[in-house]
Amino acid sequence: YEMKFGKKNENDEIFEPSCLDEYMENYFVKNKLNVPVTILHQNDLIHLCGRVLVLETTGTGFYFVVYIPKTYIHYQVVLDNIKEGILQGFSKEGWADDYDVKYKKDGSFDCLVIKKLIFTALSIVSTPANRLRFDDVKETLDVKNSTRFVRKKEENIEDLLFN
Q1: Is the dihedral of CA 83, 87, 51, 4 positive or negative?
Q2: Sign of CA dihedral 44, 50, 54, 57
Q3: How many CA atoms lie within 13 A of 19 on its CB side?
Q4: pTM
Q5: Could you tell me which residues come within 8 angstroms of residue 81 by beta carbon, excluding any fewer than 6 positions away?
Q6: How confident is the model over 2-15, as pLDDT tens digits?
């Protein structure tokens, strides 16, 4: 999981479960494009390491499956860093296209509730904002050459955000 719903991350953000739907569908799925995967939010060819195979939005959160080909120049370094707990989780890249600002009772800033996200890539990072480590890392050779976007509505969005 890159994100589990209902809690603020380290950047004081809360993401609505449907925030990725529109952009994913209209850009990546409709145009049969892959979601790129980078290392440490670096957007250059050296750090462009793979692609997202699966993005599922469930009642729990955003769940990703990523493919990094063994032909990637730093494949073994990335794999070793994940196994050693140096690269520890995922982080979304993009920007909020629609959001609400929430304030505390005393008037100070509380958080941003992201309603729509322009999602440009997924990054493998050392310090994930949601404090979620990789649950399972597997090596596989059998991959599909496309992104699978799945939306599972398991709970009421308001229940996920504010309980």
Answers
A1: positive
A2: negative
A3: 26
A4: 0.82
A5: 87
A6: 888 878 888 999 99
State the average pLDDT for the chain: 85
**Amino acid in position 88:** Q
| pLDDT the model gives residue 108 | 96
Q: How far apart are alpha carbons 10 and 16 in whole angstroms?
A: 16
DSSP class of 161? H
3-state secondary structure of 22: helix
Q: What is the C-alpha separation between 48 and 121, in angstroms, rounded? A: 10
Signed CA dihedral, 78, 2, 132, 40: sign only = positive
- Say if CB 69 and CB 140 are below 8 A apart: no
Beta bridge partners of 13: 112
Give the DSSP H/E element, type plus range, for residue 4.
strand 3-4
Convert the pLDDT of each residue in 109-153 to its tens digit: 999 999 999 999 999 999 988 877 776 566 655 555 555 676 655
Rounded (10°) CA dihedral 76, 54, 14, 160 = -130
Q: 156: Cβ–Cβ under 8 A, 6 or more apart, which residues? A: none
Q: Are 91 and 125 in contact (CB under 8 A)?
A: yes
